[in-house]
Amino acid sequence: MKIAIFDDDIIFSQNLSKEFNEYYKKLISPIEIEIITKNFSLDSFDDLDIAFIDIDLNGKNGIALAKYMTDISPKILIIFISSRDELVFNALSVPTFQFIRKSKFKEDCAKVFNQLYKHIQIYNKKIILEINGRKTVLNLNEIQYLLSFGRDLLIKTITNDYIIVSTMKEIMHKIEEKSYNDLIQISRNQIVNLNYVNNIKSSNVILNDGSKYSIGRKYKSTFIKKYEEFLLR
């Protein structure tokens, strides 16, 4: 699990990193935590799982940074931190997992870490696939879509493209075995992840990267129903 802490307060960041490691050391492995105290406008963080972001970053806008990050990679869980409690309402303008008040650090950490672990148990599900003759572990939440070409199946993730030999029925069976409900079939040869859907227009689904795919008539009503349920979660 990859975590980044964006805060110009190095002492607080170190304390947060220590608290996180202490809580999760027997629950999650491996854990990588990077503390970023300057140069907050990073070019690449699409492989992050969790971002702790101070709303007031030494004159920078932490909320704008969070919005930019989630636009690029919706899977990133944003946890805002701040010494100014009144800013919690401003933070709600972007997809936010939780908020840690520096004035209630220990209390909020215990609550947020517990909620976070429950979330990870539900959504951080993985499958093992044979890719190029090797067993490869994929996080289902990182798959943007799957596209079949006969017996070949393209798996598009946020970092890589993989091609395996599989039918849609076979891959859907593997996904359903993990009780992961966000990968939904939209046509005979395509599955999309609801976490990466930006909009639905007519009979097309538009993903966050701007790509557009047709929704088959047979799949449209089920897909729209699942998407509406997803939005209400």
From TrEMBL:
Domain HTH LytTR-type: 133-228
Superkingdom of source: Bacteria
GO molecular function: DNA binding; phosphorelay response regulator activity
Family annotation (SUPFAM superfamilies): CheY-like (SSF52172)
InterPro entries, A to Z: CheY-like_superfamily, LytR-like, LytTR_DNA-bd_dom
Pfam families: LytTR
Signal peptide residues on this chain, from the entry's feature table: none
Protein name listed in UniProt: HTH LytTR-type domain-containing protein
Organism: Massilimicrobiota timonensis
